[in-house]
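User: For a reading group we're discussing how well predicted structures match intuition. Take LLM class flavin-dependent oxidoreductase. Before you show the prediction, I'll give you the sequence so everyone sees exactly what went in.
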Amino acid sequence: MKHIGFLSFGHWSDSPGSQVRTAADSLLQSIELAVAVEELGADGAYFRVHHFANQLGSPFPLLAAVGARTSWIEVGTAVIDMRYENPLYMAEDAGAADLIAGGRLQLGISRGSPEQVIDGWRYFGYEPSEGMNDADMAREHTRVFLDVLRGQGFAQPNPRPMFPNPPGLLRVEPHSAGLRERIWWGAGSRSTAEWAAHNGMNLQSSTLVANDSASGGGTPFHVTQAEHIQAFKDAWTAAGHPREPRVSVSRSIFPLLDDQDRMYFGGRGEDEDHVGYIDPQTQAIFGRSYAAEPDELIEQLRRDEAVAAADTLLLTVPNQLGVDYNAHVVEGVLKHVAPALGWR
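Assistant: Thanks. Here is the predicted 3D structure of LLM class flavin-dependent oxidoreductase, as structure tokens, for the group to look at:
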């Protein structure tokens, strides 16, 4: 059995063929898609966060709105770039969104990926401390964020407050109990997967991973990703955390069920991994897309080692094709693929 949800980047574009022309379209349709896939029996609605781009950029209003409109589906991100975040303000927003959703938030965070502008986090007012780089800064923001989510008081109360204070040190409010255990780290390498485990975060294995397989260069994406997942699980066990962790992977999966599916995805020819660079020093592997008739798709996915190793599968959706079509894609996986693979 797997948790199956969608992952939307929330692109909008005033271009021919796009059903998502504006930021308002993207936000409102994201909410409607979450409602639609909950009705279909899916398990999660997740959103990617990018700044300085025509994509979803401020997650917490959206997460709160989805939480208010749905009843049981998980509501999450994959991922928020911690280089841009004030961890205390983020803890307030996350606590509020989680309370609105009734404790359904699954918050994916990470050190970030290449963005649309150079050092965009500087425009948000953040600078790495001396001797640190931007990745170090993201991890320091994360450390503070995780510490605050524990709900322990740390701030000295004013002896003459506007309103009466409870005794002792004060914490950030609102606090949502249990949210700390629903934080995920977006890891793109073996070392960052192990770091996530050490710090007690669930794992979101990235859509691009460092080409660091123990088997050497040329190892397929799904095999390298499965190695990262195993390294995470081993590190989790070694750390002695009392609960079982969760692991997610993201895939583009399109069952070809009708002529519209074949028109959009039947001739894409993206059945091979791609190699690129996260930065000038780090080579990365980008996973293939899956688009085929259901029987063929089932056999292809049966051979994906990382999908087999994960308990959560996020279906990356082409959100500009609109709510109805994306709900159709999710339904196709739930009805025509998942049962044969034992996911349902």
